[in-house]
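HUMAN: Now follow token order:
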Amino acid sequence: MRTGISLTVSPSDHRRLVALVKDRNSPQKHVWRAEIVLLSATGAGTIEIMGRTGKSKTCVWRWQERFATEGFEGLLRDKTRPSRIAPLGPEIAERVVALALDDPPGETTHWTADMMARAAGISASAVRRIWKAHGLQPNRWRQFKLSNDPKFIDKLRDVVGLYVDPPAHAIVLSVDEKSQIQALDRTQPGLPMKKGRLGTMTHDYKRHGTTTLFAALNVLDGAVIGRNMQRHRHQEFIRFLNAIDTEAPAGKAVHVILDNYAAHKHPKVRAWLDRHQRFTFHFTPTSCSWLNAVEGFFAKLSTRRLKRGVFHSVVDLQAAINRFVAEHNQQPKPFTWTADPDKIIAAVKRGHQVLDSIH
């Protein structure tokens, strides 16, 4: 029966081993391995080393042999061990991918990892690994809408042209309305944020009415003209156009980018347009609200002021919106269009081709 082993440690290895033991940031498994080698170099027996390091006999022998064959670097490396679980074959991954691309059984709209695990006869963690390897996320989705406008390309290039190369001696306004903004009041005061706790708001609320914000974003300097109104009919839209006409510099042409909302094309609106020759309307393609620059301002308004706001009345809501617009106009930033219209057109064409092939 083996009782001990004598190791010869070079001066350089001895310094490295001592430094490893004394370093407070060294992993403990590296420390006790180095201690085994240092004790062995002093002639200590296996029983003594076991008592001073708290390791078993086979463990002491293993790291003595590792140092004898691989030196100091061998103490810092763990040998790989085969998994106790047999690896999944490629046919399992193919089955999981095929299931993920198909609808789940029953009245469920999408696959979950647990459902897929039961269907494929593997663990949920294995399902997640296969999904990740193949870039699949059945639990997530995003919205889309392809424009069916027959003049999509012409309208797209017209609007993008106004963003990229606006006409000289003219202003370009992106106009839209954010309707049905609710004046929501919480039923209880929220708790402030502190360490370890988020700020809180009650899940229920009181409704105090709604308002509609008409907004015109000046593409050249980023300033916003805003008006709050109770409704968003053609009558309110004409009132807003009059406000734009008053605030826009006299003698300059006004190019207005609009969506295809019915109030924007009402006969009385067209009659107003005939009476104001310096105004020109440019309509975005249908189902392309993302093309209207003022939508970015509406998103900023929602996330920074409305979503967490508490409003005790419609007047309170309108005052908050007006303050937000005024604050925005103190340091406006020009709108910059960066997307290539040719890439947008190509992407829409691919989308229509895929839809046509599937349906």
